Amino acid sequence: MAGFGSPIDDGRDVGSLEAWLLADPDATYLISMDGDALLDAQIAPGDFLLTQRTRTVRAGDIVVAEIDGDYVVRFLRKNGRGEQYLEAANDAYPKLVPQESLNIEGKVIACIRKYGSE
């Protein structure tokens, strides 16, 4: 039977959760995942994604992006020619190659899932 956990007491100063997660609070926002495109990345519908507005993204980052007028959350990828496209973590979804535009709105920095109904 599980009991109550105890605080970490190994001499490290872990600070607050807010300070740990929010390097730039003014550029950080929360969105709700609305779909199953990232299920294989353990991001489920209803999860909250802590997202940071940034111009610094790399291939492999999970991003909030506007692609050809639609907003999606996907992995940012680059092909052999250095062209960017978006990829789901669910085989039911095709990769998204921009036909007109791809604008990165933010980078997902954390996934938050609340258990139970309280």
Automatic annotation (TrEMBL):
InterPro entries (alphabetical): LexA-like (IPR039418), LexA/Signal_pep-like_sf (IPR036286), LexA_repressor (IPR050077), Peptidase_S24_S26A/B/C (IPR015927)
Pfam name, any one: Peptidase_S24
Designated name of the protein: Peptidase S24/S26A/S26B/S26C domain-containing protein
Superkingdom of origin organism: Bacteria
Peptidase S24/S26A/S26B/S26C domain span: 17-109
Gene3D superfamilies, A to Z: Umud Fragment, subunit A (2.10.109.10)
Organism: Candidatus Kaiserbacteria bacterium RIFCSPHIGHO2_02_FULL_50_50
